Amino acid sequence: MELLDKKHKIYLLDENNFDFPTLEMINDDLVAVGGDFHPQRIINAYENGIFPWFIDEYNHIHWFSPQKRMVLYPNEFKISKSLKRTIKNKGFIVKTNTNFEEVIKNCSNIKRKHEDETWIDDNFIQAYTNLFELGVAFSIETYLDEKLVGGLYGIMINDIFCGESMFSLENNASKVAFYHLCKQSKQNEIKLIDCQVYNEHLASLGAREIPREEYFKLLKK
């Protein structure tokens, strides 16, 4: 790896190996640029607390490791009375890994606040679909009247589920998928759901920020 910015400790990734900077080598949220979407490179990134976020106009992948990491412990999920009623009465059917590509494509169509466009382009869709086919990426889908109306996807690293994105075409459809993610996490002894960066929606469901150093300790256990 070549150090591009000494002040902020931003690295240019080598094309010939899949190494990433360690905790001691990084400073700001953006830790590296370059590389490609080879499955092993992506897996190595997550194993080192790093994830790809977007591709710039020069076709460089930007790799991040937030100083404050948004996480949710499955037993801290906050289920409201209205969500309980939705789960019980709305008629949603929840499935796992039956329609991964459609989930990520729907996520790519969702624009968030303060974002002009989604970061999930065709490169991301292909990369994570490849990971799904390798048994590393997973999806949880919410159906209503046999139509896909919500869901989420992410990848498993040891006993941490690294969530990537979610979408909802019906009220609470993504929350129902997230509820089932937490339920399955508790059943399968998944200790943590990585939500990456803060947003109010995740905070309302029980997610909270922890220091990057604490996240790395959890990741390495």
Indicate the CATH architecture of the largest domain.
3-Layer(aba) Sandwich
Number of strands: 12
Count of helix runs: 7
What's the CATH class label of the largest domain? Alpha Beta
The low-pLDDT segments are none
Biggest sheet record: 7 strands, mixed
Radius of gyration from the alpha-carbon trace, in angstroms: 17 Å
- Kindly name the structural category: alpha+beta
Q: CATH topology of the largest domain, what is it called?
A: Aminopeptidase
Q: Count structural domains.
A: 2
Q: Could you name the CATH homologous superfamily of the largest domain?
A: Leucyl/phenylalanyl-tRNA-protein transferase, C-terminal domain
Strand order of the largest sheet: 7-8-9-10-11-6-12
Describe the structure.
With 221 residues, the protein is an alpha+beta fold. It has 2 domains: 2-65, 2-Layer Sandwich (Alpha-Beta Plaits), CATH 3.30.70.3550; 69-220, Leucyl/phenylalanyl-tRNA-protein transferase, C-terminal domain (Aminopeptidase, 3-Layer(aba) Sandwich), CATH 3.40.630. The chain has helices spanning 39-47, 81-89, 100-108, 122-133, 173-187, 200-204, 212-220, and strands spanning 2-5, 10-13, 30-34, 51-55, 61-64, 68-72, 93-96, 137-144, 147-157, 160-168, 192-196, 208-211. The strands form 2 sheets. A 7-stranded mixed sheet has the order 7-8-9-10-11-6-12, with helices on both faces. It has a 5-stranded mixed sheet with strand order 1-2-3-5-4. Strand 1 (2-5) and strand 2 (10-13) form a beta hairpin. The mean pLDDT is 93.
Key phrases:
single chain; globular; 221 residues; 2 domains; Aminopeptidase; Alpha-Beta Plaits; 31% helix; 7 helices; 7-stranded mixed beta sheet; 5-stranded mixed beta sheet; alpha+beta
